Task: structure prediction
Amino acid sequence: MRALEPWVEAPLQAFLTESAARLTLLMTTSGQVVAQHGFGRSLDVMTAAALGAGIVASTEELARLMGAAKFEALVHHGAGQSCMLAAFATPRGRWIGLVVFGQETSVGIVQLFFDQMVRQLTDAAPREQPVAPKLAEDFEHELDASLRALFGR
Amino acid sequence: MNPAQAALDRVTRVPGVRGALVASTGDGLVIAEQLMDGIDGRAAAALTGSLVARLGRATAGAGHRPPAFLHLRGEDGSILAATGSDDLVLVAVVGPDANMGLARLEMLDAAGRLG
Result:
């Protein structure tokens, strides 16, 4: 498990221990990865983050068109493994969790401990927002630095 | 009244039973519930479903049939679970003063009618 910011580690580790999730990705709604567990290649993380953020944006727009509140979670049940995608509010803005889990656990367990992780992240998040450069020329450098941190190289 | 609601009605009539729910063992989600305030049905369904599934795998590994009834006793009460067909489990949250024998009989009979 690797996280860009240390305060994310304890809630995420507790979730991983309790839920037995195989893969977990925490990201912002724009697809910027915050933490990951189980991914072996940075390309997989980037692809999953982009797809996850896109799916959440699509479902939230669908909910808006239907006049409904935002969907809490999207679960895809597969034969061998399943996938849950859920957006949630944090003091650092709206984040997305992407969780892949197998038959050794259940969607009920994953959702239960995911909600616990969200509460712990909300409590642990530093209230002051770090000043981050938003210039386009910094983007690639930031992305590289984030991926190095997430994969330890 | 559907079979799940009928099962819950029977079980919650037993003295000392604080609530009951029907959950799916495989996904740990609530199918129907009748619970007193303060009991988290979602957590009870997820954790009991997981327990039943793991015990089923453990007994299968030992060459035995899956358990039909579980009694998890705590200081302030107990969790009872009776497995039914179609991957369903009937769960009851009972206080320490509950009529455990009657609760067990009602749960086993009601669980047999689920699915």
